[in-house]
Amino acid sequence: MTTHKKSLGGTGLVVLGALFLILTILNAVVFRGIRLDLTENQLFTISEGTRNILAKIDEPVNLYLFYSDKAAENIPYLRTYARRVRELLQEFVLESDGRLRLTEIDPVPFSEDEDRASQYGLQAVSLGTTGDPIYFGLAGTNSIDDLEIISFFQPDRETFLEYDVAKLVYTLAKPQKPVVALLSSLPMTSGFDPATGQPRQPWVVASQIEQLFELRSLDAGLTAVDDDVDLLILVHPKAFSDQTLYAIDQFVMRGGKLMIFVDPLSDAELPQDMAGASAALFQDRSSDLDRLFEAWGIEYDADDVVLDQLNALTVNSGLGQPPSRHLAMLGIREQGLAADDVITADLSGVNLGSAGYLGTASESGLEMVALVESSDSAGIVAAEGLKFLPDPATLQDDFVPTGERYVMAARFAGMLKTAFPEGPPPAGVEESAELPDHVAATDAPANLIVVSDTDILTDRMWVQVQNFLGQRLFNAFAGNGALVVNALDNLLGSSDLISVRSRGTYSRPFDRVEALRADADARYRAEEQSLQRELEETERRLSELESAKDQENLLIISPEQQAELLRFQDEKLRIRKALRDVRRDLDRNIENLGTTLKIINIALVPVLLSIGVILMAMVRARRRS
Predict the structure, then answer these.
(1) What 3-state DSSP class applies to 316?
(2) Residue 504: what pLDDT?
(3) Confidence label for 492 from pLDDT (cuts 50, 70 and 90)
């Protein structure tokens, strides 16, 4: 009997071992790439926008993943990220239902595969101890041999991984890019800078637009917009002739899409050199489309700037002054962004500088949807008063919030009438080209987006630019660029990339830790200010004692001075100890919080799950009995 039980026990172990082996093989083969995403925002699940892009591929797209597997065998972090990239690409292929074809290639040195990777323009980086170049990039082609590449998958851009791949696929699936025309009085695109005598780099937002659309720069003297232009962007329109305004008006009347950036005080118009900037301080740096706005029912005052206490950014004022909050330099966060509009729904924040505000005329019939607006701790100030502002802190002296929320970017929808009811304006002899028939009103509701700030487009307001192996890399700290491209995608009727792009900017701060840090910083500043007051009082006391001495005893320290110095030194040591205690308490609180979280994650959660499973088993057993 005992031998029989032992035999059964051994057989059971063999069966369990075989079952475990079979399940392991099935898990590796059948369930490969399948994951359970329990993150709050489903960060590791392909977004709906990506699925739409993959579903709209008409002809097959070929993807070639070049990864130097052998050369990167001693670089664990790169191998881990390569697995993440490979799994994402495989999910793309599965979701595409055969529209995507993925080929994985290991370009070993001196091979045809390495030559092929170099021919595609992929970047080789030397990271390992062997010195062999490492390729880790993606090349994609379509049926007409268009080529798009990701030269190197950088691990620090993991949050943008899905967007980068989706954008590559989207570009290859839609080889005919929409035509976006840009009419700007600011130097947004590449060219020659006469002030420095060097080539001018394009603004990052212009580079982003060029990646997704066919960007065409227009001259300020245009008299008609080409028929193949799908969308027109106006940036800082100044002193446009009637012929140019008429061309813009008729473009909209014929159903063209329009995005406008105006500004009551554009810092982007200031030259970079000090001499030019000083001269430009006295010039008018505002822009307006008053004739078109008045006819269309859009209200905007180029003389007023929005100030906001709640959303003010801290800036360096220079001239030896400490950093201070600038009420006209605004960082608008989620509370000021439209949560129910696809353009701004998933943005974490945008930065603006000296922005105006927008509205609609009561009789216009236009519907205004606010995209970016101030808090209710905002007010209005004359733009002229900000031109010669030596210290931004002075804006707080006489500032009184109105309690209103001011709209700084908005979508306007509705039927529009032309600003030229009498027909085209008379043209000069040289501008007497034949124009299309005059259109008096739109046939369908127009869809315009207006932003009352141009500084929102400048690099300094939202992105850091770095050079990496001869390439410009962009690290965005605000959603300005995403807002612009989201708006263009939406106006052109393509919103698939928007949800993917927004996921790249998602961050989840440690709210409790940040609150602890903020409390400690406040206490630290209070103690520091106390020390400064003690120092000033001691110096004043020493000065009084010094002034009471005669000329013969200038070099002799009196007992009163000696006592004062000793008292100050003791007080200084006490306050420094208090400062150290504040920092020590902060570290202790954060460590205690971390310990609590570890206990919850490591011990409490498994215990709760075990109790839950046991209770479920007991309930099922009771039901069966």
Answers:
(1) coil
(2) 46
(3) confident
DSSP state of 138: E
Cα–Cα distance measured from residue 565 to residue 548, given in angstroms and rounded to the nearest whole number: 17
Is the Cα torsion angle 563, 564, 569, 570 positive or negative in sign?
positive
Q: Tell me the DSSP string of 455-523.
A: GGGSGGGTEEEEEETTEEEEEESSSHHHHHHHHHHHHTT--HHHHHHHHHT-----HHHHHHHHHHHHH
**Tens of pLDDT along 422-445?**
999 987 545 555 678 899 999 999
Taking 60 as the threshold, does the pLDDT of residue 253 lie above it?
yes
Q: Are 140 and 149 in contact (CB under 8 A)?
A: yes
**Are 223 and 198 a contacting pair, CB within 8 Å?**
no
pLDDT of residue 505: 44
pLDDT, residue 520, reads 60
pLDDT tier, 318 (very low <50, low <70, confident <90, very high otherwise): low
Q: Which strands make up the sheet holding 324-333, listed edge to edge? A: 312-315, 324-333, 349-353
Instruction: Evaluate whether 136 touches 152 at the Cβ level (below 8 Å).
Output: yes
Residue 515 C-alpha from the chain's centroid: 24
Strand boundaries in 517-563, DSSP class E: none
pLDDT tens digits for 570-608?
766 676 677 677 667 766 776 777 777 778 777 777 778
Paired tokens of 54: 């993959």
- Strand-pairing partners, residue 305, are 381
DSSP secondary structure code for residue 337 in this structure: B
Tokens representing residue 42 in the block: 């489903």
Question: Which residue type occupies 355?
Answer: A
| CA 353/CA 285 separation, integer angstroms | 13
Report yes or no: 250 and 441 within 8 Å, Cβ to Cβ: no
Rounded distance between C-alpha atoms, residue 524 and residue 547, angstroms: 35
Q: Do residues 410 and 368 touch, judged by C-beta distance below 8 A?
A: yes
For residues 350 and 394, the model is more confident at 350
Q: How far apart are CA 457 and CA 460, in angstroms?
A: 9
105, β-bridge pairs: 66
Measuring CA to CA, which residue among 392, 385, 262 is closest to residue 327? Answer: 392
Place of tokens 């997704």: 212
Q: Which of 221, 248, 243, 223 is nearest to 233 (CA)?
A: 248
Residue whose C-alpha is closest to residue 135's, from 94, 85, 87, 208:
85
Alpha carbon 94 to chain centroid distance? 30
User: Which residues on neighbouring strands pair with residue 370, listed in sequence order?
Assistant: 410
Extract the tokens encoding 152: 């190197």
- Smallest CA-to-CA distance from 240 within 261, 219, 267 is with 219
User: Among the listed ranges 18-22, 72-76, 306-310, 514-518, which one has the minimum average pLDDT value?
Assistant: 514-518
Contact 388, 437 (CB under 8 A): no
Task: Report the distance separating Cα 27 and Cα 21, nearest Å.
Answer: 10
